[in-house]
Specification:
Elements lengths: L3 H15 L23 H6 L20 H6 L2 H14 L25 H8 L3 H4 L3 H5 L8 H14 L16 H5 L1
Length: 181
């Protein structure tokens, strides 16, 4: 998610170049993604959101009504899961007053009690199926933070036979002058 000031600057630039406004198509789920501001507070991230910009009053919101991926696959469980996520995202699930938490429906997902059980559910046959790209493409362990998934990844990688390769991504520049030159 871009900082609201970036969108405001783009708006001013387009007005200067075109002597008026231009239509911009944004695609996002504003319930999920906030701008990331290093070493900031949650308030700073919320205040940087486009919804708090003076441009928000000009935004026309369109809502998707069909989960195309679930519809194309004819997967009833994927369609149910999609509907449950929308119900949660739209705030239509009751919140427990004492804890502030919601209760998931019984068929929402498969809960596990340990990392080992999670690994066994997601990649039960990693030793025999590690070369099966289609099988691997249907599996993922998602967690809030990358360092939370490091331990399960390490356990799974130790079961794989053969040479391992790590591909690193870069989330920031080491020298800020390089980013602007």
């Amino acid at each position: 998610m871009a900082h609201k000031r970036a969108m405001e600057a783009l708006n001013r630039t387009l007005k200067d170049l075109r002597f008026g406004g231009a239509m911009i198509l944004l695609s996002a789920d504003f319930r999920q993604t906030l701008p990331i501001i290093p070493r900031s507070t949650a308030d700073n991230e919320i205040n940087a959101c486009l919804k708090l910009s003076n441009l928000w009053r000009y935004v026309k919101k369109l809502h998707l009504t069909i989960n195309t991926r679930a519809a194309l696959l004819n997967d009833i469980s994927a369609e149910d899961f999609s509907e449950q996520l929308l119900t949660i995202g739209n705030g239509q699930v009751p919140v427990d007053e004492s804890s502030g938490l919601i209760s998931f429906p019984q068929n929402f997902c498969k809960f596990v009690s340990s990392k080992d059980e999670l690994i066994n559910k997601v990649v039960p046959n990693i030793i025999t199926d590690q070369k099966n790209n289609e099988w691997l493409s249907e599996r993922a362990i998602l967690m809030r933070k990358n360092n939370d998934v490091d331990d399960p990844n390490y356990i799974i990688q130790n079961d794989i036979i053969g040479a391992l390769h790590s591909y690193k991504s870069i989330d920031c520049v080491t020298n800020e002058d390089d980013a602007t030159s």
